[in-house]
Design a protein that fits this description.
74% helix, mainly alpha, two-stranded antiparallel sheet
Length: 418
């Protein structure tokens, strides 16, 4: 591994004057870049509604389908497992067909998977998790590489914008699913869940002409994360991504049921989670640029971990009168941690090739690690009959996140091993 020689090296390729790959529009084509940037941001909006929408109606799903707490945990965990499993083949697909067309496939899978939820029975719900999870995995892996390739001089800004879009999609689904269920669909949670296919369809129509008419051009040499497996820094970036994701998916999947068990109504519980996710928009936008200006990101990673732990504990065991403050603080911590995790993928790699490799590794193995978080919450709930035991789980995850963030935040870049 090697250290950076300047702050600019954290956000730009080593050779910014190199020739553009064939099929990539030059920087001067502002209309193309604007459309491409807008499209990537809108695609990012569709990478989280699958998670946020289900969590707020999970008690109704369990009631109407007879699903146990462990079964519900498996339902919320399955798409996260798919995020890990389908991240690995994504670089090979992008190399063969081009990242634009693979993103088109990703949007199609998300759309079909979300529509399946309208059936309202267990088999389609689990099938939905697999299809949507596969599509989200592809989008997760390809977006950082496309940003690095097409917006090399504005990497921090674009990372902040598409991270903000991811959080906005999650917040919208969390806040609006219950009102949609009650006000628009006469209490039918299945239709409220399937509603979130509509934004995916609209973005699909916008993206299809761009993807179809773009010559297949892979992210430079993207060949998966295997070449990075012997790099300690790459594993620390992966661990930080996975652990912050575990805590984020616990929030999206289980915080609303936890608050309802503490006596808060279903709509209010959804609003609290939505406020937390909406608060992430601020730190999602600010953290990438702030992190790029820091000498290293170790203190930032540890600080975000501590903030998440304190705020989560406040919501789990603190007085309910302070729930809105804790929700805002939790959002600040989780939005910052998520943006930092995505930024570290770019900042710890020197070019688009390594970015694609590190993205596949961090999001593949990272999301497999993250799947353990919501799964363990459901298992502990089934064993103990409540959520109190999960305070220890959240504490352990936060401490491990701080430890891995201290390593991943060092002023270094990963080296692909031959």
């Amino acid at each position: 591994m090697r250290t950076f020689t300047s702050a600019q090296a954290q956000t730009a390729d080593p050779n910014p004057n190199a020739a553009q790959p064939e099929g990539v529009k030059p920087d001067g084509d502002h209309s193309h870049r604007l459309l491409l940037g807008l499209s990537l941001i809108l695609i990012a909006c569709n990478l989280r509604p699958v998670f946020g929408s289900l969590s707020v109606v999970l008690p109704e799903v369990m009631r109407d389908t007879g699903l146990s707490a462990v079964g519900a945990s498996m339902l919320t965990t399955l798409p996260i497992v798919c995020l890990g499993l389908f991240s690995a083949p994504t670089p090979a697909l992008a190399r063969r067909f081009g990242p634009e067309r693979v993103l088109l496939l990703a949007l199609l899978l998300i759309t079909v998977g979300t529509v399946l939820r309208a059936a309202g029975t267990l088999a389609p719900l689990f099938a939905s998790s697999v299809l949507a999870g596969a599509g989200i995995a592809m989008g997760n892996v390809l977006l950082p590489g496309l940003v690095k390739r097409s917006f090399a001089s504005h990497t921090a800004l674009m990372t902040g914008l598409y991270t903000l879009a991811i959080c906005a999609g999650a917040a919208s689904a969390t806040a609006l699913t219950v009102p949609l269920m009650v006000g628009a669909f006469d209490g039918h949670w299945a239709w409220a869940l399937a509603f979130w296919a509509l934004p995916a369809v609209l973005v699909l129509l916008l993206w299809a002409p761009q993807a179809w008419h773009t010559r297949a051009q892979p992210l430079d040499g993207a060949a998966g994360g295997g070449a990075l497996w012997r790099d300690r820094l790459a594993w620390q970036v992966t661990a930080f991504m996975g652990l912050q994701s575990a805590l984020a998916f616990i929030v999206m999947g289980w915080l609303s049921p936890l608050l309802r068990e503490r006596g808060i109504g279903s709509a209010d519980a959804g609003y609290i989670v939505a406020v937390s996710i909406l608060t992430q928009l601020v730190t999602c936008l600010l953290v990438p640029s702030f992190a790029a200006r820091c000498r290293d990101q170790r203190a930032l990673a540890v600080g975000m971990s501590a903030l998440i732990l304190v705020a989560f504990m406040g919501l789990m065991v603190g007085p309910l009168g302070g729930r809105w403050l804790w929700a805002v603080l939790l959002g600040c911590g989780q939005g910052g941690a998520f943006a930092l995790a995505l930024s570290l993928i770019v900042m710890r790699s020197g070019n688009a090739q390594v970015t694609a490799q590190l993205s596949a590794m961090a999001q593949g193995w990272g999301y497999l690690l993250a799947a353990g978080g919501p799964l363990l919450v459901g298992v502990l709930r089934e064993w103990t009959g409540g959520y109190a035991a999960n305070t220890w789980l959240v504490g352990a995850l936060a401490v491990a996140m701080a430890w891995s963030g201290w390593g991943a935040g060092r002023r270094m870049v990963v080296q692909a091993k031959k």
